[in-house]
Amino acid sequence: MAEAYIIAAVRTAGGKRGGKLSGWHPVDLAAKVLDELLDRTGIDPALVEDVIMGCVSQVGEQSTNVARNAVLASKLPESVPGTSVDRQCGSSQQALHFAAQAVMSGSMDVVIAAGVESMTRVPMFTPSALPQKNGLGYYMSPNIRKRYAGVGDFSQFMGAEMIAKKYGLTKDALDQYAYDTHQRAIVATREGLFKEEILPVEVRNADGAGTGELHSADEGIRFDVTKDGIAGVKLLQEGGVITAANASQICDGATGVMVVSEKALKTLGVQPLARIHHMTMIGDDPVIMLEAPIPATMQALSRAGMNIDDIDLFEVNEAFAPVPMAWLQVTGADPARLNVNGGAIALGHPLGASGTKLMTTLVHALKKRGKRYGLQTMCEGGGMANVTIIERL
């Protein structure tokens, strides 16, 4: 079977809500990442055959095919098409899967998989908050409501609470996890471990004018974090265990990877960072919703002929602390290999951009540590999960 290779992976540093990336139109921010991928590889922009871009809230500034708009705002020629993907939080991980599948099928040789989300300018839940009238305009159709009678809305927040209860995860344990992930992110930032993967961008004012300041470090990291501070954050639900401190942060950001065939490697004379070793996608219970990475990981390892100890580093998206904690409990993975540079609780979760964000961090972490195999997975709205296994080259 033909192979697919990653030859470049880059991301912006995460921006807090209303923070240093809030002055950027998401299309222009995504275009900066596309341009950086071209600069890092040095390839002719006209050789790019498609741009596949993850984005969850595809309304307003992120509407009307944000991928194509990012192409038109970039250095890519008009001949390069673009398409936008919504697989909820796994949108840009799915973009990577589509890009790899296009290359492995032999139909394309050079594809960019990317993601963008400005959660400041296009707030979470905006698409589902559009006007409803006389029962019309609700995303849950009559058939879904009949099939899941008594459930109400599918809720990630409730799913997180359900996972914590199912796996016996206390609030103290969740808060400790949140503290630890901040510590890993702090160390990674101070030691410059993100430097190679981050594209510094100029901070812009609300009117879009540049300020001269460069944004080059993840803005959500709390360098003064304390265990007491995390423990003191109010519960999102009375009697629950989930707080804003042990859940992922709202974040603005753009990310991308360039995927090529073996033929393109030789023709372009570029060196690969990693090879796509395996891809899996599953659907699971949409009510508990966030548990899907567990069976998805087990299925991926089985199909790849691997076991959990064969994997050197893991990136499991920290949508909520119970997700990676339950995943660790079931898979038996070594916690020291998980989210080694911190996760979304500290670094932020820019929804549709997080898939290629995690992949970018995974590729560079494997390189820096001299490790071979990496596995990425993330929970997704509706009860789904992607798994990608890569081999560093």
From TrEMBL:
Any one GO MF annotation of this record: acetyl-CoA C-acyltransferase activity
Annotated keywords: Acyltransferase, Transferase
PROSITE patterns: THIOLASE_2
Organism superkingdom: Bacteria
CDD domains cross-referenced by the UniProt entry: thiolase (cd00751)
Catalytic residues (positions): C89, H349, C379
Keyword Transferase on entry: yes
Domain Thiolase C-terminal: 271-392
Start and end residues of each Thiolase N-terminal domain: 5-262
Recorded family membership: Belongs to the thiolase-like superfamily. Thiolase family.
Protein name, UniProt field: Acetyl-CoA C-acetyltransferase
Organism, scientific name: Noviherbaspirillum pedocola
